[in-house]
Predict the structure.
Amino acid sequence: MQKPLFLTLAAVLLAGAVQAQITVGPRLGGNLATVKLETDQADAPDTKSLFGPQVGLTLNAQFGNLSVQPSLLYSRKGFQLDDSRNVDFDFDGDGDDEAYSLKTTAKARLGYLELPINLVYSTGGAEGGFQVFAGPYVGMGLGGSYNVKARIEGDGLEYSDSNSSGVKYADKASDDEDDDNLYVRRFDVGLNAGIGYKTGPVQAQLGYGLGLSNLVPNDADGNDTGEKAQNRAFHLSLSYFFSLNN
């Protein structure tokens, strides 16, 4: 009983694949990305968005008004953290602390090899028209950069400094106190949804990516830090499709 059912399902899927209109083409766009940050700190820094490129290939398998669109992309995400607070320091060494203003800006740019698979509904079928789409994605971290700038002002003193380092993908942070790299978990899983428009071979889409994975690794001892950071990104893309059907 199970074997005939399996063969029937396989035959239906194969027939659908044969009847589908297959197109593929380059995809170019950008992300306006940040993170949703959850921490126990009462004075947690503010998060802001950074722009990053998105480039790759998209395949479109059209079945009437519905299509499946898997893509293979290089997608750069990231975030900016701005922190401002008052601190007490004894810079002149006289034993008395003075009040200073400390402003810090950190920018993290995270590169991903990303595979989104979207189910797309087009009002005009293969010809295009207005679209709505949704689907999951999985991303693998491929590198990045981390920059921190700090400025101290007060009591006639103005001092600024900056530091640039890299991004390392790991499940656990480093125990090296001299390691200035930003540690982030390598894999990210989430959901995409949005709208678009397709006319002929040209497709434009505007979407939102909701990351579900926690990017914050465990501490150097392997313990959960209790903090959470998840990718969030608006993305705008333009694709041009070429037919693969004879």
Notes: The chain has one domain: 21-215+230-243.
